[in-house]
Fold:
Amino acid sequence: MTITVSIISVPGFAEWRNEARKLLTARVPPQDVVWNNQGNLQNDMFSRTLVPTAGNIPNVPKKFLELAETAICHSDEKRFALLYKILWRLLFENKNLLHLTTDDDMMELHHMVKSVRRDAYKITAFLRFREIKHNGEEYFVAWYKPEHYTLERVTHFFQTRFKNMRWSILTPYRAAHWDMKELHMEDNPNPDLYPGEDKVEEYWLGYYANIFNPARPKKGAMLSQMPKKYWVNMPETKLIPNMLRTAQERTRDMIEKANGKR
Structure:
């Protein structure tokens, strides 16, 4: 008989760990569990109540918990099932599973971990604040759409980097608000709070345009470091198409000026 487990929270690590502990105590194998997340909740009329069996759960390696806490931030709905399957195999089938680099489940786990870490880094690299006035004081707001549930993984970076600023980072699923003393999290924020533009952005765009070297427009390198899917978060990217289009003409002007022809 199938057991359905619903994870309500996002990313859901603490909730998943608690439910996995119950399943392990009852010795429920992975194939008998259906995991639902917040976007796929349903009632299972055939689910049964867990009846714990005698005996303790073996110790879970710290390395697995670290990997699981990262991987569970992935947006793939299969992450809960994968993590429980690996945990089951690790405890009851092969205690050396974490070291098997060619195992299909472990390869998928490491792929998720890598994707989450990369997504978290992209937030720190591509997020842009805009200034507003809030209660008569400067306040900075950013809107960012991550691929995964990674906002919580980078809040400390922004608290440290911008500790003397009041700011909010809005994402589709959660927002982080910093008042220079405490960090507050809010679910499902209103994206309309993000301003369309600000005075700082005008200066930043001017600076970005001036540092662009038309003689060395490495479009491939630019796209590898700053893929187009992130451009929506970066105001300077609206200048790139025109700068690339006029690069040759601007280069000729530079050469002619250097040779005294203009």
Notes: Residues 8 and 192 are 26 Å apart (CA to CA).
